[in-house]
Design brief:
Two copies of one chain form a homodimer. Helices cover about 40% and strands about 25% of the residues of chain A. With about 425 residues, chain A is α/β, with parallel strands linked by helices. Chain A is elongated. The interface between A and B is large, with 71 and 71 residues.
């Protein structure tokens, strides 16, 4: 079975807004064994929406309309889909009563516009909306012209998701291929996408039972999305697990995540597991490493804090880097990275310390120390390690690469 | 004139990838006075792509195809558009020579697949691609069936943008309505979207000469996008400028940006202009404020650095907050925020110091100090200010709100 998703709203045809609901819907449809063949974005114009609906009905088994269910004149989805299907609309007394109750509960008066939200296409089941005023509709067509499923959903993502999970999923799963789908997502660090694909292709290409998608995540991260469909959940899971195991054998400890966790999450798990704490001293990454670590809820259990040291004097006063070292080797040097890691570790009384110094650009590069040159260091009580790298890309990418390297070094130190 | 943008690629029909090129293209088309009526996403399937092309040609004056111009079997755009137009393809010797030269320059051998990249639709102008192997095509159809413009562009954003600006823009502007379009983007801080709209509607609604779009940016930021089309550039500019002036009168100093600059950029301008420096001490925002400030190239001219102080002892050792103050009032208190701002300012010898402490959640909230409670403080030599706020939303949004508040306080301090 195939599906088309139609996102409705003139704001989605501006440079400022984008349909994102379709990503969620695609994931859900894929889990049901349904592929998405077309996505269409159309504005709030009667003729455009009606013809888009007609085209979709002619080429897809399942057509999902998103948006245009509100109470304003611009909300034309009910009306246009009814025309495209050649079915009349009838105003539902039940929905009117529900709408009135909803407004009354908030002490508001319902305006007459809202009445159009009670218009139901002939043959449709009404999908209640617990989070907004616009009910959805589900139409299963089965006649001489063939089978089709037409679904009308509200646009706001939290309304759409709740309605899909509570109202659409069970209806769709009765009508879609009843095969089971299992997923896995492996992530690897510090290997480029094409290098990763070159090594992985010989492993996943022969596996017809698993669909593999390789994606470049943020700089320094590659994701393998594995998906298998089978007659039983056990078989589907076995398929993805065996391919995941083969990929883990190939990439060994570059695999940091076996189920889609982020690198900062994994580092957090390891730190907690080891009862260890972390402190960081950042120059060119300017707080990004601390920000990534503290984006994880509960990170205060293992992250103590640290310093952002843009100036030489702060490298000395906040992270105890000897000023003579900076004079001798320059602020961007392996010696200063090492001193930052060791200094902040001691200053914060942490198990592990990280130091980062480099040239994030766009200015500040020299022939000897070009934009992209970064030193990342990790220290514990017994050993300090420094890596020197030349990262490609702009300021944002260089900063991200450097924090990714730092997190990966911490992960590897904790794995041992 | 109206346009349809067709994004081609099966990866764009997965849950993982999204067409973003169309946002750029929409902005450019709007500047030429062309509205986008439809956006379609279609996979690498011959029948689907051909029918999508036929449908688009029947309903849009300008059809832009993005992607599917590579050398693989999946790259079907040239072939399917030719079929939809009923025009033959011819292999261009010039393109073959260019491709061979391109490969030779890199010491690579060109494989035979690449030859299909030399297939040109009858009547098309070839658009050279300085950044990749796939040339684009531009077809101006003007016959008994009417006028149409068909454009084939490569998918990678940097290739697409360069080709559009260098090759497409001048061709399109000869063929599109020669009216001028002016833009302005105002941004305001710390006012909600609906509150901002309620105050702004009476100002922009009566103005038929300017199209106004209000968007919520990141938490604590609302954007007004103003666009006017007129017979002369002067008139278009005058239209947006007069509306911008009226909005600035209404929102006064909440307007931080008169041309779309970010708050961190504006704070950077002010700091440089005043010859002032900044240091920050962050607890709940965990480095996000420093990260935002240092995301701006050249921020080392005014940002010195600071401390991320997740633990009480680091608040004392890195930012000189008296431990008695923490014991007495708790780490999340206006007193500690004030001490963080003053302490880090002195410690770093900065003109201005910022302190942030709060409960970002999801855990750690109490009845007296719930999730979302944040104290933000700004200190200079003569005065320290603290604001207490209860921010809505999840950890990410609360952290962003707090940094936005901090940047806005710094901006206001520097405006005086």
């Amino acid at each position: 079975m195939n599906a088309e998703i139609i996102a409705i709203g003139s704001e989605l045809l501006t440079p400022f807004r984008q349909d994102t609901d379709s990503l969620y819907l695609t994931a859900k449809l894929n889990e049901l064994g349904v592929e998405v063949s077309f996505k269409t974005v159309v504005g709030d114009r009667r003729a455009d929406l009606t013809s888009a609906a007609q085209i979709a009905l002619s080429r897809a088994d399942i057509v999902i309309f998103v948006g245009g269910l509100g109470p304003t004149e611009d909300d034309l989805t009910r009306e246009c889909v009814a025309v495209a299907l050649g079915r009349p609309l009838a105003r539902s007394r039940q929905i009117i009563a529900d709408l009135r109750a909803r407004f009354a509960a908030r002490g508001w008066k319902m305006s007459d516009n809202n009445l159009q939200q009670a218009d139901v296409i002939e043959g449709a089941e009404v999908l209640p909306n617990a989070r907004g005023s616009a009910p959805g509709q589900f139409i299963h067509i089965s006649d001489a012209g063939g089978e089709a499923i037409v679904i009308l959903l509200p646009g706001p993502p939290h309304e759409l998701k709740a309605m899909f999970e509570e109202q659409v999923l069970f209806r769709l799963s009765r009508l879609t291929p009843a095969r089971y789908i299992a997923h896995r997502e492996l992530r690897i660090a510090m290997i480029g996408e094409s290098a990763a694909d070159a090594r992985a292709a010989k492993i996943y290409k022969p596996r017809a039972d698993v669909e593999t998608t390789i994606l470049a995540g943020s700089p320094g991260e590659v994701q393998f999305h594995l998906r298998s469909r089978a007659e039983t959940m056990q078989q589907a899971q076995k398929n993805v697990d065996s391919l995941a195991a083969a990929l883990e054998d190939e990439f060994e400890d570059a695999v940091f995540s076996a189920n889609g966790e982020s690198l900062e999450q994994i580092v957090g798990y390891y730190l907690q597991m080891r009862g260890a704490t972390l402190a960081v001293a950042e120059s060119c990454t300017g707080g990004l490493l601390a920000e990534r670590i503290t984006s994880i809820p509960g990170s205060s259990r293992y992250f103590l804090g640290g310093a952002v040291v843009y100036t030489n004097s702060l490298k000395t006063s906040l992270a105890d880097v000897p000023s003579s070292l900076i004079e001798q080797h320059g602020a961007v040097s392996s010696q200063v990275a090492k001193a930052l890691a060791e200094g902040i570790r001691k200053r914060c009384n942490a198990t592990l310390g990280v130091g980062i110094t480099g040239v994030a650009g766009p200015g500040g590069g020299t022939e000897k120390k070009p934009v992209g040159l970064v030193y990342v260091s990790v220290a514990d009580e017994t050993r300090t390690e420094v890596v020197e790298r030349n990262y490609p890309g702009d300021r944002e990418r260089i900063r991200h690469w450097a924090t990714q390297q730092a997190l990966d070094l911490v992960r590897r130190r904790l794995m041992v």
